[in-house]
Structure formats: C-alpha cells, structure tokens
C-alpha cells in the first residue's frame, strides 16, 4: 500500500512538471520504477500505460485553457505513434543500455541549447506565428516517439525542445500541443509492449497509481503554464533536460562518487544562474513594454 501511495505522489509531481513544461513525466516515473527493480521494458510499458490516462486528462485541460495548436497535434501524433510502436517492439527485444548514452548526449545538447537561448536571448518575435511545416514535424514526431518508447520517456524532451528552439510557436502552446499529442503516442507504445512482452511484464496496479496522481495534477499544470512567462518557461525546460541527462551520463560513465556530485553541483549552479538571468531579463522586458524606465536608464 505504501508503494502505491508513493507512486501516486510521483505521478502527481511528474504530471505537474510535464503539464507545465511539456516534459518530465516519463523520465521521472521510469527512473523510479527502474530504481525499485522493474526491468526496462516493463518499466516503460507501465509508464506508457499510465500515460494513456494522464495525457488524455492533460489534453482536455490544455484545450480548455486554449493551449493547443491542433494542426501541430495532427502532424506530430501519427508519426509519433509509428515511432513509439516500433520503439516499444525494439525495446522488448534489446537492452536499453545500448541506447541510453546516445540519447543522453543528444538530449543534453538540445537542452543546453534551449537553456542558453532562453536565458541569454529574448524570445524571437520575427518567427513567432509562422506555421510549423510537415517536413519538420513528421520526422520530429517519429524520433520523439521512438525515443519515448525505448527510454521510457523522451516525447517531451525531444518534441518540446525542438519546437521551442524553432521560435515559431509560443511556449504555452508548445507545451499544450506536445502534451495532447502524447496521448496517441502512449496508446501506440502500450500496444507495442503488449505485443512484445505481454501483460505479464506490466504492473497494472502501479500504472493506476501513477495515473491517479497524474489526473489530479493535470488541470493545475494546464492553468500554471498560462502564468509562467515564456522566457522563464523556456529556461526551466532547458534546465530540466540538462539536469536529467547529466545524471544519466554520469551513471553510464561510472565516475567516482565525489566527482559525480561535484559535476551535479556545478551544473545545478549554472542552471540556477540561467534561471535568475531569465527572470531578471523578463522583468526588464515587461517594464520596458509598460513604458517604465529600467534600472540602467535611471540617472546616477
């Protein structure tokens, strides 16, 4: 019973992060399931089964708050489903350790780019509102779905990162569209795992506990994303990706504990500094937009 309560709390926290930043549910939940001894395929299958419910609740909430671009959802969901089904089938037969280092390096690079871009530069307005083309969204959806199924999470880190980096869709709609399209991906991945490992490898009671927590958090996260400034939201997304994948890389490389914690500390300080920079920059931009004078403009 204690395990189920803890899993529900993890599901709540993971969905709160995922629904407000467009990523984090799969990575957080899968990490916990692996830590308590579940095999990679079973962990990913259990998480994706829970995500059928959490992503449906999240999509409904984001739609209510106007956070969804349905054209983006349509262009992402189908290739994402194909990638997720193939990834689930592959993971059912291959060790996830082979793909983990490559995924971590890729996501770390993308996360670093988003972190620097949003903390050091203003949100581009010259590209905002331009339609995202199918030739960009189709391969993106396929790769994100493949990574999500193989790694137990990745739809958000890959999809949200790439679309945020394009500067063509405001962050709250990036988050809402990614969260909504993930429902189709979760269904496809679950089908692939059911075919690959059968029901014996899935813990339905654990999936229900994750689902219960996620459903509670979904409306709150969809409301929260409307309040977080775009620049701060982008920086937080980048920091989340960087911190998660630095941890993955240090575990794969197997460096000494002392050096590992030193790396964690330096990266955490850098992310905190980037977050503070984004907040200060947002305040200055808001003051300028309101016709107020920034501190630099005040005569000494």
From TrEMBL:
The chain crosses the membrane at residues 97-116, 136-155, 175-195, 207-225, 261-279. One of its GO terms (cellular component) is plasma membrane. Keywords: Cell membrane, Membrane, Transmembrane, Transmembrane helix. It comes from the Bacteria. InterPro entries: TM_pro_TauE-like, TSUP/Inactive_protease-like. The keyword Membrane applies. It is a multi-pass membrane protein. It is found in: Cell membrane; Membrane. Its main location: membrane. Belongs to the 4-toluene sulfonate uptake permease (TSUP) (TC 2.A.102) family. This is Probable membrane transporter protein.
């Amino acid at each position: 019973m204690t395990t189920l309560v803890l899993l529900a709390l993890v599901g709540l926290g993971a969905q709160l992060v995922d629904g407000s930043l467009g990523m984090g549910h799969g990575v957080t939940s899968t990490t916990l399931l692996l830590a308590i001894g579940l095999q990679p395929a079973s962990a990913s299958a259990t998480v994706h089964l829970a995500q059928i419910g959490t992503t449906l609740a999240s999509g409904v909430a984001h739609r209510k708050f106007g956070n969804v671009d349905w054209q983006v959802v349509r262009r992402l969901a189908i290739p994402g489903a194909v990638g997720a089904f193939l990834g689930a089938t592959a993971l059912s037969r291959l060790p996830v350790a082979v793909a983990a280092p490559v995924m971590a390096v890729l996501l770390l690079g993308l996360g670093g780019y988003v972190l620097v871009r949003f903390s050091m530069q203003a949100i581009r307005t010259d590209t905002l509102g331009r339609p995202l083309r199918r030739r960009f969204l189709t391969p993106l959806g396929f790769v994100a779905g493949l990574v999500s199924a193989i790694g137990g999470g990745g739809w958000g880190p890959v999809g949200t990162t790439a679309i945020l980096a394009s500067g063509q869709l405001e962050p709250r709609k990036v988050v809402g569209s990614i969260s909504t399209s993930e429902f189709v991906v979760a269904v496809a991945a679950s089908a692939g795992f059911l075919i690959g490992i059968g029901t014996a490898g899935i813990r339905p009671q654990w999936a229900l506990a994750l689902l219960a927590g996620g459903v509670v958090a979904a409306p709150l996260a969809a409301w929260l994303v409307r309040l977080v400034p775009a620049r701060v939201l982008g920086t937080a997304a980048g920091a989340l990706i960087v911190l998660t994948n630095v941890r993955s890389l240090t575990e794969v490389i197997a460096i000494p504990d002392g050096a590992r914690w030193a790396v964690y500390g330096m990266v955490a300080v850098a992310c905190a500094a980037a977050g503070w920079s984004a907040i200060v920059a947002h305040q200055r931009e808001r003051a300028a937009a309101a016709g107020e004078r920034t501190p630099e403009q005040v005569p000494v």
